[in-house]
Amino acid sequence: MSTTILAIESSCDDTSAAVIQDEQVLSNVVANQAVHKLYGGVVPEVASRAHQINIVPVVDTAIKKAGIQKQDLTAIAFTRGPGLMGSLMVGLSFAKSFALSYQLPMIEVNHMQAHVLAHFAEDPKPNFPFLCLTVSGGHTQIVLVRDHLDMEVIGSTIDDAAGEAFDKTGKLLGLDYPAGPIIDRLAKEGTPLYKFPEPKIEGLDFSFSGLKTSILYFLKKELKNNPNFIEENKANICASVQDRIVSILMNKFIKAAEQTGITELAIAGGVSANSALRAALTNLGEEKGWNTYIPQFQYCTDNAAMIGITACYKYLKREFVGQDVTPLARWK
């Protein structure tokens, strides 16, 4: 008998639903919330209200695209956390109601674990054990993956995440939110002329707060001498910032590979869509002869397919939760 799972992702500002059948993605639908550009960041209350509007049509579209009936489903999966409490609550409440209506078991999924397992939505899949550099707006982690459900975080940020460094830099440069993709585009037109310091952090942990401060002071100094400095040098500034963020990430990732002896390397999370990071990992693999894995763009940002893939492995172990489950805004 086949396993057909409806998955819901609503941890931040993207409402997503997917249908996964026997570890194959039948559909993966995402509704974005462009309204947050007006505020320069995600507004939690606005996000949760938008989820309420989007979730029914998104789920309906995902089921229709999958070519199945609701009665064909064998389970419903949802993101329990980490994320925004109001956003998580919308997805969980929908999952609970749907599960009750169709007498389906529920499967909770950790959002960060799902980013790692997005690699199993398509071929080629990493071999165990592998290391995954998981980089997003809220998290920066190096994860040792021994099996689908056996993971250990061996390095993480002690302050800000890499994605936050991109977005905060974008604000300083007057770019729209989210700034990461815009910086990536502008960086292709510039040259990394300006050298920003790399934090001296022991072990495999990251730090980006000092880099943000360095960028701020650099811009203030240059603007005193030339009020048009940012506009005249925006592409070079973006290239310089991106070059440093990517080098910080890759230097730690290489260190982790050398310390563990693991040369199966993957990246995941929203920032893994960055072209410079993708190129750096590809180049590293070619230079060292290591196996590297980069997900399709649709599996980098928040999506329900990765939730459903993770749920497939939990379903096989019958790891279900009851109707008393609650969201976890912070869940390691």
Could you list some keywords that capture this structure?
single chain, 332 residues, alpha/beta, Nucleotidyltransferase, domain 5, 2 domains, five-stranded mixed beta sheet, 10 strands, 43% helix
Order of helices and strands: EEEHEHEHEEEHHHHEHEH
With strands numbered from the N-terminus, the spatial order across the biggest sheet is: 3-2-1-4-5
Radius of gyration: 20 Å
Q: Tell me the count of domains.
A: 2
Q: Compute the number of helices.
A: 9
Describe the structure in brief.
Helices cover 43% and strands 19% of the residues. It is α/β, with parallel strands linked by helices and 332 residues long.
Folded structure, characterized:
With 332 residues, this protein is of the alpha/beta class. It has helices at 44-66, 85-102, 111-117, 162-172, 180-187, 209-225, 229-260, 275-288, 304-316, and strands at 4-9, 15-21, 24-31, 75-81, 106-110, 130-135, 140-147, 150-156, 264-268, 291-293. It folds into two domains: 4-116 and 300-316, Nucleotidyltransferase, domain 5 (2-Layer Sandwich); 127-294, Nucleotidyltransferase, domain 5. It contains nine helices and ten strands. The strands form two sheets. It has a five-stranded mixed beta sheet with strand order 3-2-1-4-5, with helices on both faces. The radius of gyration is 20 Å and the shape is globular.
